[in-house]
Amino acid sequence: KQKPMIRRKIMNPFILVKSELQQHLFGSGYPSLPTMTLDEFYEQEMKRMVEQQERERNAPKPVEPEDPDEETEESLAKARAWDDWKDTHKRGEGNRYNRS
Question: DSSP letters of 46-74?
């Protein structure tokens, strides 16, 4: 059950100044004035959250990646081929740039 939303009177920001001329000259005295009320912000956030929940609900389930440590036929064949190569080639017996 949702609680009814209470609409509050929109309050405009006001600035205390000594004179109307000072207010006109210096402006608001703040870098920026609020661009929306708290109620507008709340409504915007609620819409965004509802949209995000719908996207998450409708999104496809992520496929779990394969375990890299799991042995497969390919990985076993590659390991055996490497082991055979190491048996026939001694350490340091590689291309020595045509030096004896």
Answer: HHHHHHHHHHHHHSPPPPPPPPTTS--HH
What type of residue is 100?
A: S
- State the virtual CA torsion across 15, 17, 19, 21 in degrees, nearest 10: -70
Summarised one tens digit per residue, pLDDT across range 33-83 is 677 888 999 999 999 999 999 999 998 888 777 776 777 888 889 999 999
CA dihedral 45, 46, 51, 56 (to 10 degrees): 100
Contacts 24+ apart (CB under 8 A), 6-9: 7/39, 8/39
- The conformation of residue 68, written as its DSSP 8-state character, comes to T
**Residue 89 to residue 52: CA distance in whole angstroms:** 59
pTM of the model: 0.36
CA distances from 99 to 51, 88, 96 (A): 69, 20, 6
Pair 33, 13: CB distance under 8 Å? yes
